[in-house]
């Protein structure tokens, strides 16, 4: 058996229980999941997922400069051209879920 080292982490009990529930369904012990996370940190040379602050509200026209607005419009046009479109119902559901509106 390979040598191992201990890692101690303090987490909220609810978070631990929720994570264990998901991992149990996947058949992965918590210690293996932590090891997988650490391996990915080494392979990626950083945190293996994007980290950013969530937006508290959708962008509004008044909050953007002309350049920012133009950039957002260009992104939208690129999405339309590439076929990345969503129904109004899907957008409304996402807005309710993410922003409560």
From TrEMBL:
InterPro entries for this protein: Arc_rbn_hlx_hlx, RelB/DinJ
GO biological process terms held by the UniProt record: DNA-templated transcription; regulation of DNA-templated transcription
Keyword set, alphabetical order: Toxin-antitoxin system
Listed Pfam families: RelB
UniProt cross-references to NCBIfam families, sorted A to Z: RelB_DinJ (TIGR02384)
Protein family membership: Belongs to the RelB/DinJ antitoxin family.
Name this polypeptide is given: Antitoxin DinJ
Organism whose genome encodes this protein: Roseburia intestinalis L1-82
């Amino acid at each position: 058996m390979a040598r191992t080292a201990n890692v101690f982490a303090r987490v909220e009990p609810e978070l631990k229980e929720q994570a264990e529930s998901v991992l149990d369904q996947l058949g992965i012990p918590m210690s293996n999941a932590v090891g997988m996370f650490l391996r990915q940190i080494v392979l990626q040379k950083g945190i293996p997922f994007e980290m950013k602050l969530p937006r508290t509200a959708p962008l509004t026209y008044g909050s953007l400069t002309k350049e920012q607005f133009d950039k957002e419009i260009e992104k939208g046009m690129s999405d339309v051209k590439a076929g990345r479109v969503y129904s109004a119902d899907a957008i409304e559901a996402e807005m309710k879920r993410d922003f409560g509106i």
